Amino acid sequence: MDIHEYQAKEVLARFGVAVPDGALAYSPEQAAYRARELGGERWVVKAQVHAGGRGKAGGVKVCDSDSEIHAASEAMFGMRLVTHQTGPQGKGVYRVYVEGAVPIAREIYLGLVLDRSSQRVMIVASAEGGMEIEEISARKPDSIVRAVVEPAVGLRDFQCRQIAFKLGIEAGMVQQMVRTLQGCYRAFTELDATMVEVNPLVLTEDHRVIALDAKMTLDDNALFRHPQISELRDKSQEDPRESRASDRGLNYVGLDGNIGCIVNGAGLAMATMDTIKLAGGEPANFLDIGGGATPERVAKAFRLVLSDKNVQAILVNIFAGINRCDWVAEGVVQAMRDIEIDLPVIVRLAGTNVEEGQKILAKSGLPIIRAKTLNEAANRAVEAWRNDASHDVTMRAAL
Ligand code: ADP
Ligand code: MG
Fold first, then answer.
1. Are both 29 and 55 inside the same structural domain?
2. Ligand nearest to the CA of 198
3. Distances in Å between the alpha carbon of 64 and those of 59, 104, 177, 211?
4. Are residues 9 and 148 in the same domain?
5. Is-contact 44 62, C-beta < 8 A?
6. Who's near 274: CB < 8 A, 6+ residues apart?
7. N or C: lower Cβ tally within 10 Å for the chain?
């Protein structure tokens, strides 16, 4: 789960990281009012979306007056901000953050990530802040400083000082840098984050170390341990199909094709998508219903796949180990009775209780296309989708 910049700053501030004073606004009037409350002479209005690169896309504006704040936030509200991280559809702006402008002397890149090869939290920093890390590693790879944290002892102050020295931070600010790094590390570990990024971390003209931007990704599987963090979720920033799926405990990724897939197991789901492509079709989604799927869960998966208007055929592919084919078959039948699915449905079952499953499908009298192998299932799904789509076109032409 991603959270907004203002939320990540609140979180980091609780762990001792210095951030600029700021306030959230839901309207241009409120933004101008917030700036007056904050005081000062110069502010920055920042669109709150779950993506970086806002500065270049018009989502960060420096303002010198109430009226400028009003105009800048009016332009942001309701727009879909398209940055290199959002995809072409962009992300809607429904909140802006107003903060005091900071006199920047230097911008530094700071990121904490889970490094899979060392199986440790890794701190990545660069004196070339302001640029995205991808750009830094392409253009200035030598500027990147890395430090791995031993989990048994945690991040040591000497490691923080080493990072500070490598970044060329002057002696008077090293202690603030230690505090910042320790704060980010504690936030990362205590809240089960998978990423904390402060880009830029700035050194100000008056010798302060401040997190000017903040991004944080939390591990979905650990959210149950942090109810207060779960509340920070903002569904307006998520793919609606994916947030519906996560509400239902299903593992779903939306795609652009038109053959909906209901599969158990991530590996089988990937193989099913590949086979559909091989047969000449395009999958509409990745969906792993998991092990031990009850009929209700299968029916939920059907509803979810059907809520995608691009779906023109549904392929159910189950290899039952822990799952039971009879339960899955019952789920398919239940869903098709409840929802009146008028799309071709192709079902391939294998494994535990497969005979019972096939019987349930056969006895239901529903127009289910049954397949024995994955290849056959994919081919029949593509075939059925083609026939159905052309049927649609001729119907439309006839009207
Ligand atoms: P993004 O990474 O989405 O583009 P940032 O929050 O990093 O957004 O802001 C982009 C740039 O805007 C920063 O690199 C910094 O130069 C400037 N900026 C952002 N916030 C402030 C601030 N409070 N004071 C001064 N400059 C700021
Ligand atoms: Mg940034």
1. yes
2. 2
3. 16, 16, 30, 22
4. yes
5. yes
6. none
7. C
97 is catalytic: no
Could you report the per-residue pLDDT of 102-135, keeping only the tens digit for each?
A: 999 999 999 999 999 999 999 999 998 878 888 9
> Which residues have C-beta within 8 Å of that of residue 172, sequence separation ≥ 6?
207
Give the model confidence (pLDDT) of 193-248 as tens digits. Answer: 999 999 999 999 999 999 999 999 999 899 999 999 999 999 899 888 888 887 78
The structure's pTM equals 0.79
The encoded tokens of residue 318 equal: 């189950």
Q: Which amino acid is at 183?
A: G
Please say if 231 is a catalytic residue: no
**Do 390 and 263 sit in the same domain of this protein?**
yes
- Taking alpha carbons only, the member of 51, 102, 99, 97 closest to residue 76 is 97
| DSSP code string of 336-390 | HHHHT--S-EEEEEEETTHHHHHHHHHHT---EEEESSHHHHHHHHHHHHHHHHH
- Give me the domain span that covers residue 212: 1-19+103-238
Catalytic residue among 109, 128, 185, 330: 109
Of 238, 253, 286, the last residue of a domain is 238
